[in-house]
Design brief:
Helix content is about 30%, strand content about 25%. It is α/β, with parallel strands linked by helices and about 220 residues long. Strand 2, helix 2 and strand 3 form a beta-alpha-beta unit. Bound molecules: 5-O-phosphono-beta-D-ribofuranosylamine.
């Protein structure tokens, strides 16, 4: 147990990506120790998922802080009390201060529902449909000071179909999220994935700008 990578997961909502990590641990596929789950919002379903899996939970409500800097500092203290090797942002809906991103540089991952660098920010599924994209998808990337801008680790591509609305497309993308996030976390935990000179490096080889690419034509 103690030689497994310690992972702290930050959430703000439903926690389906957290669940994919929990499932990976429980099936023996994912050799990590889920040290804690921290939410910035009370009463979210992700906290229930963590409790059910016997993972320590913490709530740090951003609304009780006067500014972003003091919240991020308190969050860092909380995270560091669990001595994580990796911090995983799983639907954590906060803009992070440069001090925070610098502190975890090379040891913090995020998942963003688009084929980055396309569609940074919010409402990505609707924006992909409105732009007439033939494909859309999801990216796991290292977190840097640039919002949704750090080096990509892995991307999954899915088709955009004629009758898609944002929620149908989001579901198609989410199925891939639950595949690629555990994969990226596993690479990191096994010591195969690093961020070196601002690039993602997998098993000693720099990854292309899109990261490792997975395609799914599954509707
Ligand atoms: C996911 O769509 C993820 O890509 C985005 O936020 C959502 C989180 O969903 N960053 P969940 O809380 O993991 O279900």
């Amino acid at each position: 147990m103690s030689n497994k990578a310690r992972v702290v997961v930050l959430i703000s909502g439903s926690g389906s990506n957290l669940q994919a990590l929990i499932d990976g641990v429980q099936s023996g596929e994912l050799p990590i120790n889920l040290a804690a789950v921290i939410s910035n919002r009370p009463d979210v379903f992700g906290l229930e998922r963590a409790t059910k899996a016997n993972i320590p939970t913490e709530l740090l409500d951003h609304k009780t802080f006067t500014d972003r800097e003091s919240f991020d500092r308190a969050l860092m203290e909380k995270i560091d009390s669990y001595q994580p090797d990796l911090v995983v942002l799983a639907g954590f809906m906060r803009i992070l201060t440069p001090e925070f991103t610098q502190h975890y540089l090379g040891r913090m991952l995020n998942i963003h529902p688009s084929l980055l660098p396309k569609f940074q920010g919010l409402h990505t599924h609707q924006r992909a449909i409105d732009a007439g994209e033939s494909h859309h998808g999801v990216t796991v990337h290292f977190v840097t000071a640039e919002l949704d801008g750090g080096p990509a680790v892995v991307q999954a591509r899915v088709p955009v179909l004629a009758n898609d609305d944002a929620s149908i497309l989001a579901k198609r993308v989410q199925r891939q999220e639950h595949v690629i996030y555990p994969l990226a976390v596993k690479w990191f935990a096994q010591g195969d994935l690093h961020m070196i000179d601002g690039k993602s490096v997998l098993k000693g080889e720099p990854l292309p700008a899109s990261g490792f690419l997975i395609s799914s034509d599954e509707p």
